[in-house]
Design a protein that fits this description.
about 180 residues, mainly alpha, flat
C-alpha cells in the first residue's frame, strides 16, 4: 500500500501591517468580551431557573426517597413475590433487583500492605500486579542537569535518550489575551 505524503500547512493571514494587526486584534477582543458577557448572563439565568425549581424539587425528593426505601424493604422482606425472577411488572413500572458485577473488597481492619504481603507469601504474587512506569520527572531533571553541565553532556544525554526510544520536546503555544477591563 502506497504511503501518502503529508504536507505541513502554511498558515495564511489577511494581516499585512501593524494597523491591520491592531484592527484584527480589536475585533477578536470585542468578540471575546461579548462571549464573556453572554456566558455570564447565561449563568445568571441558569442560576435563576435552578433557584425557581429548588424548593419544588426539594419538597419531592425526601418523600420520593422514603417511598423508594419502603419499596426496597417490601421487596427484601417478600422474595416469594418475585418467584424465580429478579423483577416483577407492576401497573406503574418494574420492581426488582439487578445483579451487579462482582467486586473485590478489603476486609475491614486489614491493611492493604498486609494483604499484599500475604498474597506474595502464599500465592507467590499470583494475584498481584506490578506496574512499571516511566518517571518523566526524573528524565526531565536529568536532561536539565545535562544541559547545565554543557553542550557535550547535553549531546550525550540526547544520544542516551534516543538509544532508549525517547526524546524531550518543548513546544510553544500561541496566545492572544484581550484586555477584559471596561473602557470608560
Amino acid at each position: 500500500m502506497a504511503k501518502m505524503a503529508t504536507r505541513k500547512k502554511t498558515p495564511r493571514t489577511t494581516i499585512k501591517t501593524r494597523d491591520d494587526l491592531e484592527g484584527v486584534f480589536g475585533e477578536y477582543a470585542t468578540l471575546v468580551i461579548e462571549l464573556d458577557r453572554l456566558t455570564a448572563q447565561m449563568e445568571l439565568e441558569i442560576a435563576a431557573v435552578r433557584k425557581k425549581y429548588e424548593d419544588r424539587l426539594a419538597a419531592r425528593k425526601e418523600p420520593a426517597e422514603a417511598l423508594f426505601a419502603d419499596l426496597q424493604a417490601y421487596a427484601t422482606l417478600n422474595p416469594d413475590v418475585f418467584g424465580d425472577k429478579r423483577s416483577i411488572e407492576l401497573l406503574h413500572g418494574t420492581l426488582g433487583f439487578r445483579t451487579c458485577p462482582p467486586r473485590v473488597l478489603q476486609v475491614p481492619g486489614v491493611k492493604v500492605e498486609h494483604t499484599l504481603a500475604a498474597i506474595d507469601a502464599r500465592m507467590g504474587g499470583q494475584w498481584m500486579r506490578v506496574r512499571r512506569d516511566l518517571d518523566k520527572a526524573a528524565v526531565l531533571a536529568s536532561v536539565a542537569q545535562a544541559r547545565e553541565a554543557g553542550p557535550e553532556a547535553a549531546d550525550r544525554m540526547a544520544a542516551d535518550l534516543a538509544a532508549v526510544g525517547l526524546r524531550v520536546e518543548q513546544d510553544e503555544v500561541f496566545f492572544a489575551e484581550p484586555k477584559r477591563e471596561l473602557e470608560e
